[in-house]
Amino acid sequence: MSLPPQPGPTSTRDRLRHAAAELFAARGYVGASMSDIAKRVGVRKPSLYNYYPSKEELFMDLLKSSIDDWLAVSQPPLEAEGSCCERLQGHLHKTMEFTQECPHAVVICRMAVNQLAGDLGERVHALLAGHREEYRRRLGTFFAAAVTAGEVSPAPPEILVLSWLTFLDGVLFHQLFAIGKRGADYRDHLDELWQLFWRGIASRPEMEDRSFA
Amino acid sequence: MSLPPQPGPTSTRDRLRHAAAELFAARGYVGASMSDIAKRVGVRKPSLYNYYPSKEELFMDLLKSSIDDWLAVSQPPLEAEGSCCERLQGHLHKTMEFTQECPHAVVICRMAVNQLAGDLGERVHALLAGHREEYRRRLGTFFAAAVTAGEVSPAPPEILVLSWLTFLDGVLFHQLFAIGKRGADYRDHLDELWQLFWRGIASRPEMEDRSFA
DNA sequence: CCTACCGATCGGTAGG
DNA sequence: CCTACCGATCGGTAGG
User: Could you read off the pLDDT of A140-163 as tens digits, one per residue?
Assistant: First the structure.
């Protein structure tokens, strides 16, 4: 029954990060105790402090990794070759793949925007606000180019950005929370939702545009 | 310094409910302690148990009230006279007014969909799932009628429902969380976002519809 | 990586 | 509505 001396298929540190992400996502920051996490790792609570100096630092590390992983997966399609429609759809698909593979990461990012008070709350808010601003800046450039290319209705880029963020956040919310066991349902309809979204912002050379002329 | 014997402009029970809603919304269920709530009410912790037998019951009562108030405000426009476009937009506006006036109520509904484990989690999930199913049923009827009336693209009603829920949840997310101090910004652009959303699902008698023919 | 332990705080009760 | 108090658990430390 005794395992070989090497840490096994994954290091304790990796198992700690995975267990903590799961529990933070499932119960929130306060609801996931260090004892719970230790139990899931298969170790006693004080041992966790060999890897992270505090619960706050553990959470911050997971949050940073979550954001970085998310960006690494989802951003390339936005900068790729192709029409703006294809690029944005690629960005959406990569985001949804990431959400499916690492739901904990996305839930941690979403719950971090509220529910955290005091010092930790401020650190988290600053981190998220920075990334969000950077993301919005990139999207602004993207949509300005899409308007110039005639692919998208000539609305102000910031409105198109808000429209996209609204759509994406709505999709993420449903993917993660609202459906529960029926998540597959929603994913099956993603392309139809995408079509309706794009239909709303696409340019219409063949008719007068009453909204944004 | 001593107040008159009547409970004041609002009863202790009302102040308790208000304080609890604020704290639950700000810090989550676990993060808002009964001591915190009591402090905000201006009373000692054990006194709270004269009004509610437990923290769980207090939360459940707030959650139920939040849902009921939300529905009471937002549903009438859906059933009113007028075009489907006007009715849905009225429903959106009433929802946003409610969100602005009672942000705690909306945050409590949103946080309740996750972050709650055990017995309470199941009770909350059952309550929310019931209301959500009822809401989707009503929306299904609404969109089926909108398609029949020729106001909306002839897509399957359930897709139109999902599209609306995605839009609404995205809007609520931004209104509540993503912007923080800049909530006013977002509200100023709500009508433009609505236009882009409706543009996506509206029927187009003047052209061939490539998406849903 | 462990046992043993810290002060603080949790939800809740007894009793008035 | 209060004081006094309960067992349980919190994040974290000492020391090995």
Answer: 999 999 999 999 999 999 999 999
